[in-house]
Give the backbone structure.
Amino acid sequence: MKCLSEQRTIIITGASGSIASGLISRFIELGDKLILIYRVFTEEYNSIKKKYPEQIFGIESDLKNLSEIQNKLDNTIADNKLNPGFLIHTAAMRSIDFSSLADGEPQIWYDVIENNLIITYHILRCSIEILRRNGFGRIVLFGSNVSRIGLGNGSAYSASKAAIANLCRSVACEEAENNILINTISPGPVKIDDSKFNPEYREFRKQYYDDQLKRIPLNRLADVDDIFNLCNFLISKTNTYITGEEIFVTGGAL
Ligand SMILES: NC(=O)c1ccc[n+]([C@@H]2O[C@H](COP(=O)([O-])OP(=O)(O)OC[C@H]3O[C@@H](n4cnc5c(N)ncnc54)[C@H](OP(=O)(O)O)[C@@H]3O)[C@@H](O)[C@H]2O)c1
């Protein structure tokens, strides 16, 4: 556990997600305070809030609504006298159309872009203002290895992830003078619990991951510790010179 002066306050989006859940338990162990953004509060949230009332602060909000998330974030920070210096943005919509660009439903394409790229703009728009007040900030966005290899039957997801990595580069240029460093973690397939997925998505994911595994020189999927260790370094004060980067966590696969 850290002494109070070292205690970080980290905003984490997509808090009910597979990777975020793993990151949250590890940051709690380190003694950090966490502002967790859920689209809908879960049982898991109720139980960690009960267990760590001084460390956990929850916000229920759909990130598609800029003014709502801005108000809720400002109120949570003011009401609890918090001083966040860090943002980890994991929230995203999975690739759900399973169709080629030419055959897929336009509305699904628009939804994936909105739920990945537009929400990233929203959370950056309200968080950067908060970090600027501190004169310090560290931000991690989540991309994907598909930003460089593409994704057949998932063009919207893959395009949105490439756009996030590019957005990161622009924001790095804009915010360097405010001592705000921003990077994108782009994992290949990560080992997560897939029991909550519907059978169609589980099968799509299994086939894709089996295929990807053959191309990974380290011969295993990433696990949450691989993601956490990088994330924890990127948001640390030790990181004073890496910004605007898209860092691939793929076990050597291109
Ligand atoms: N898992 C992998 O293998 C992998 C590989 C490469 C990259 N990534 C990236 O890593 C990040 C985390 O992945 P994951 O597997 O943990 O994803 P996940 O389990 O699908 O979690 C995504 C989270 O984002 C939330 N979310 C989506 N749209 C939202 C919105 N409009 N407002 C608020 N919350 C919203 C979801 O909320 P609900 O629960 O309410 O839907 C969910 O909690 C994602 O950016 C993903 O693209 C993952």
